[in-house]
Amino acid sequence: MCLGLFSCSQYQAYEMKEPIINQINLVGNQQISSVELRNNVLGIKNSYKRLLPAKLYTYLSNKRKRRDSLGIKPSFIQFFKSPNPAYNTTWLKSNQNQILRYYRENGFLSAQISPEIDSAGNLFTITFRIQEGEPSYFTKEDSVSVDNPILATHVSEYLKENSLIRPMERLKLAVIKQEKEQLSHHLRNEGYYYFSPDAVGIRLNDRKDSTLRNVSLFYKIPEFKNRTSIPNYDRLYRIGLPEFIILDPFGNPALYPPIKSLSKLINLKEDDLYSVDLFNQSLKNIYLTDQFKTVSIRFDSTRTRLFPKIELFQNEKYNFSSELGGSVFRGIPGPFLTNSFKVRRLFSSLDYLDFSARLGYEAQSGFINTDETRNNLELNLSASINFPTLYLPSSIIRTLGAYYGAKTSVGIGYDFINRPEYQRTNFNLFQRYTWQKKETNFFTLSLVNLNLLNSNYPETSTSDAFKSYLQELKLKGNNLYRSFNPSFVSSVSFQYVYRDLLPSNELKDGSIFQLGLESGGTTLNFIQSHEFNFVNDLLSSGQDIQFYRFLRLNFDYRKYKMLGRNRTSQLAFKVLGGVAYAYGDENEYQLPYEKNFFIGGPSSVRAWKPRRLGPGSYVSSSNLVEQPGSILLESSLEYRFKLFSLFGQMNGAFFVDAGNVWNMSQGNTDVTTQFRFDEFYNQIAVGTGFGLRWDFDFFLLRLDLATKVINPANPVNEKWVLPQTSFEGGQNPIEFNIGIGYPF
Fold first, then answer.
1. Alpha carbon 179 to chain centroid, angstroms
2. What is the distance, to the nearest Å, from the Cα of residue 155 to the centroid of all Cα atoms in its chain?
3. In degrees, to the nearest 5, what angle opens at C-alpha 551 toward C-alphas 545 and 555?
4. What mean pLDDT comes out for the span 635-658?
5. Is the sign of the CA dihedral 104, 107, 112, 117 positive or negative?
6. Residue 498 in contact with residue 441, Cβ under 8 Å?
7. Is 422 helix (H, G, I), strand (E, B) or coil?
8. CA distances from 477 to 140, 481, 576, 619, 671 (A)
């Protein structure tokens, strides 16, 4: 114990002159855990049994204070700077009241807290004996008193449709406080600019039940306290014409202020009732134009209306950024350079033009001989012009109603890949609409998405071997070869996303739903030959140009639910599905390779290698061959929990994954890959495993170990393969998956 940290003789001679609390116990609590009480009652936070004796903590604390007074703070002694709290009757009474207050704030109105004291010299052990009693519950049989009859109508509508109080939920004063804030927010959306939570009085009504086991509430508006009365709390306000103050990046008045264009981004028009949400949407519309550094607003309410004054500082017209980086693959460095250039206010006062370019010379494994490693050249160029509005017919705009975050984008892209096996180019032309209806609802509509793809093969043995490889895959039913044939792929698509949480490493409640619809080659239906002659001329290379007609639907639903009294663990669930139907016989009813579905890998069914599961009960001759399908069913269930802290938070997870892909019946001769309603459920693959997640806040490192449970590729009586799990290969080897972030 000495080890040079302090003098043993000084420590042995040290006496604690004041009463010290050695330990704090909580007894009798059942519905509210001890951890929850310690986290919310500051005085009992250190109620665990200390690792070292109380005398040592007290001695080091006093020694630290003496050294601190001289301006000396030894870092190691700082580790022991959390001394045991001193005991006195004031401390005891204060913490007894704090525990009792916490219980009553959480619905236990008849709770009783009795302290017990056990001492040995100057060391005290405190036991708080808790009698929780029966909790109280909301009944939703509430009474309302509102002075203003028009305001009373709005309050009544809120209580029926939007109230946070739910019948038979446990009484919590925090929920009542949130109810005041929510009601105030609702009324401010109805035109009551000056309304605040201070005007809302909510009391417990003991006339219906004097025991307050079943709690009804009494709403009284107004009920200002502490003389904070606001005279115009119940007055409706309408919007006047906004005033814009627009300054250039140097603080001078802008030469050509876009007043008319900005006015179109304001969702509230003259004579509309004030709405705090619609005005916040309007400010977000302005901010999302990417034209302004700051967006601020204040209201002139000295007249009969609210006159918004919006002050804006413009961004610089030009922005340029560059990033030089690299990667190392099998010991071979691969540098890359990324540049982006933005020009604002190019064609109008609120548009911007984006250029981006990426050049990489990065190492990758060979396509056929994966043991070989080569540097491959990749070039990506893109340019898009973006406008903060939807260029759609006015009738459609009226149908959409109020929205924000709107953007119309038109752009082009060019991708070039130079590998020893091939040279591949893709020219892309696109148009896209994006907008939001709420903070949680996102929409994307693309009316134009054209891709011209072409591949050239150098006259080398490597290239010849690659072409032979593609032919072998073709004979096995894999249509990868179509990705390297000259192709024209056009589509119209729509995507809807609901998201009530932002993806992050933090565990929390929420859900995400995504729906995608796509129609490929739609305009080809109006041409008898189902192809464009000008594209044939453009890509003339001695090969037939592939034109595709297809329909594609996919959905993705994810649900996250926190568990336990302390909400430290999470149950995460996802289900994915999709159908892609090629109705063009000109390509033997085949899809563009990129429009297929794939399954397996670190973020999918983890017991299989990436994109190698299926289709159906098909038995692949090689793990190197991707397995595409036109029908997808996939689901995962994962239980996530905290383990310990180690330079961050180490978390664990148990998971079960299931799913498969299948092919349509047309254009496919292998019956084992086809989807059939009387057979598909026997072809669902199942995997399970355990994972570790090392959370450093700014990123999360993930390791999952997965094993197959049901392998649909095996014969009927041999699909159960869990007992064959092995770390040394064999029929069911453990799959190691490493990734960044959660799998979903």
1. 27
2. 34
3. 130
4. 91
5. negative
6. yes
7. coil
8. 63, 10, 24, 12, 11
Place of tokens 């329909």: 551
What SS3 class is residue 313? strand
Alpha helices (H) along 53-198? 54-68, 75-78, 89-105, 149-161, 173-189
Q: For residues 339 and 470, what is the distance between their CA atoms, to the nearest angstrom?
A: 35
Task: Classify residue 107 by its DSSP letter.
Answer: T
The answer to whether the peptide bond before residue 222 is cis (omega within 30 degrees of 0) is yes
CA distances in angstroms from 79 to 82, 208, 418, listed in the order given: 8, 56, 57
Bridge partners (DSSP) listed for residue 450: 429, 490
CA 124 to chain centroid, in Å, comes to: 48
pLDDT tens digit sequence for 603-628 = 999 999 888 898 988 887 666 677 88
Q: Residue 741: how many CB atoms within 10 A of its CB? A: 15
Most confident range (mean pLDDT) of 1-5, 179-183, 308-312, 562-566 is 179-183
Of 358, 284, 352, which Cα lies nearest the Cα of 319? 352
Percent of the chain at pLDDT above 70?
88
Nearest to 265 by CA among 446, 456, 402, 92: 402
- Digit-coded pLDDT (tens) for 320-362: 999 888 766 666 777 889 999 999 998 888 999 999 999 998 7
| Residue-wise DSSP of 474-541 | HHTT--GGGGGS-EEEEEEEEEEEEESS---SS---EEEEEEEEEEESGGGGGSTTSS-HHHHHHT-S
Residue 47 has pLDDT above 60, yes or no: no
Residue 265: helix, strand or coil by DSSP? coil
Chain centroid to CA 160: 31
Q: How many CB atoms lie within 10 A of CB 300?
A: 12
What tokens does 503 get? 């993806």
Q: What DSSP designation does 217 have?
A: E
Residues 598-607 as b/e (b if ≥16 CB within 10 A, e otherwise) read bbbbbbbbbb
Strand partners of residue 690: 654, 705
Neighbours of 679 (CB within 10 A): 14
Assigned token pair, 415: 């991708």
Amino acid at site 27: V
- Beta carbons of 636 and 573 less than 8 angstroms apart: yes
Q: Please calculate the CA angle 97-100-106 and round it to the nearest 5 degrees.
A: 140
Residue 518: CB partners within 8 Å, gap ≥ 6?
A: 491, 492, 493, 494, 550, 551, 552, 553, 595
Coil, helix or strand for 141?
coil
C-alpha Rg value of the chain to the nearest Å: 34
Q: What is the DSSP letter of 6?
A: S
pTM over 0.85: no
**Which tokens is 280 given?**
């916040």
| Rounded Cα distance, 665 and 667, in Å | 7
Predicted confidence (pLDDT) at residue 59 exceeds the cutoff of 80:
no
Q: How far apart are the first and last CA of the chain?
A: 49
286 close to 257: Cβ distance less than 8 angstroms: no
CA gap 386, 433 in Å, rounded: 10
- Contact (Cβ atoms closer than 8 angstroms) between residue 645 and residue 657: no
Task: State the Cα–Cα distance between residues 266 and 273, nearest whole angstrom.
Answer: 13
Yes or no: say if 401 and 499 are a contact pair by the CB < 8 Å rule: no
* Contact assessment for residue 705 and residue 735, using Cβ atoms and an 8 Å cutoff: yes
Residue with tokens 């709403």: 219
The pLDDT score that the predictor gives to residue 13 is 58
Beta pairing partners, 552:
518, 580
User: CA–CA separation, 172 vs 137, rounded Å?
Assistant: 9
CB 85, CB 91: distance < 8 Å: yes
d(CA 86, CA 22): 9
Contacts of 298 (CB under 8 A, 6+ apart): 308, 309, 311
Give yes or no for a contact between 261 and 348, defined as CB atoms under 8 angstroms apart.
Answer: yes
Cα angle at 520 between 516 and 526, to 5 degrees? 135
- What tokens does 178 get? 């949130």
